[in-house]
Amino acid sequence: MDNIIERINIKLEDELMKKFPDHQERYEFAANFCKSGDYVVDVACGCGYGTNILSQKSGNKTIGLDVDSDALQWVNKYYEGNSNFLKITNGSFPLKEKIADIIVSLETIEHVAKPEKFFI
Q1: Which CATH number fits domain 10-118: 3.40.50.1820, 3.40.50.150, 3.40.50.2300, 3.40.50.970?
Q2: Above pLDDT 90, what percent of the chain?
Q3: Which position has the higher pLDDT, 69 or 1?
Q4: Contact 65, 94 (CB under 8 A)
Q5: What's the count of helices (H) and strands (E) in the chain, helices before strands?
Q6: What is the number of other CB atoms lying within 10 angstroms of the CB of residue 68?
Q7: Which helix (H) or strand (E) holds 9?
């Protein structure tokens, strides 16, 4: 979580949002598609600030998924109660099939080794 360009450190969120407002704006744009009661999944959630934005819009607990164990451990404490955060292991999402009304994944595809499999 030290690389503030690739993963926004929530401890520096206010300062970074001034420098990189587009990060928050993208989540706010995606949140416009969430309706009250929607089950929302945020793939590659990082430090969870975007997952939290989506959760506030849908009114439901939102699921954030990421590969970074350290980020997930920290974010589960920071956003305790608002959302659930789970680890993606070996490219497998830890969710039951067809449970999401909306899936959001921002700033992700350039980090995926085999992007063609990401969409399957």
Answers
A1: 3.40.50.150
A2: 16
A3: 69
A4: yes
A5: 5, 4
A6: 17
A7: none
What token pair was written down for 26?
């993208």
Provide, for the chain, the percentages of residues in helix, strand and coil under a 3-state DSSP scheme, each rounded to the nearest 5.
40, 15, 45
pLDDT in tens, 39-77: 899 999 988 888 988 998 888 878 999 988 888 888 888
Express each pLDDT in 25-38 by its tens digit: 899 999 999 888 88
Give the predicted TM-score (pTM) of the model: 0.80
Domain residue spans of the chain: 10-118
CB within 8 A of 106, min separation 6: which ones?
Answer: 23, 26, 27, 30, 44, 50
Is 3's pLDDT higher than 50?
A: no
Alpha-carbon distance of 44 to 109, in angstroms, equals 10
CA angle in degrees (0–180, nearest 5) for 38-60-80: 145
